[in-house]
Amino acid sequence: RTHQSLPTLVLAFADHSKCRRSQARQKQQQHVSSPMGQKQSTDAQPLKGKHDDEHDKPSFGKMTCCEQWVSGLSMIFWAFYCLLGLYIGGKAMQLSKQVGSFFFHEPMTNMSESWTFIFLTIMGVYNAVREALISEGNKVALITTEIIQLLLYLTAAVTLLAGPWTLKEVRNPLWDEDEDTDEDNPQWITNGLYQPMLVSATMMLTILAIGLGVAHLVVGFMREKWRAEQAKVDAALGNS
Fold it and tell me: How far apart are CA 191 and CA 34, in angstroms?
């Protein structure tokens, strides 16, 4: 029995040592293959250089034809709108010279309206540029910007429709309440801003402002689709 048990013990010990060696080899192979696999996966990925990052950035070159038309008409509108504000400011300076001081009701009222026009112009140009540079994936920011654009154009339309050129007569800044019978300085005088051509031009700008507000809202919803179609057309022309 002892002679038979010794060979079995030796064989069992040999089998156990072989199993341990095979397990150790498998562990070594796993350690070696995992970094090699990681290296291969990283090597398989394309390297992004500086030019690729610049290509992913939004730019004016990605604008479609409809976006260019809307942005171009917007810039023309805000240019005329700013000219009207400067014109009102010039009339305010003339009134201040007639009165002898700027701190009177009429000059300050006209100057406040002038600054309102200039401020809305700055906001309109800023939002137009910001709209063109928003990435296609940021839908929430794009739609929010377009809603702000709509409200901005509606506000500009109201200021055009109820501007100082709609009044035929204005209060004379030189009129004295103690001298009611003064023929040289009547209480009401003709408004220098009231001109039929100017009133007609502001009515046309009012219609344009409402149309541009709606057009910007449509651009906000359709921009991603238009740019995807434009990218397909550009890719087809590039391959041909």
Answer: 86
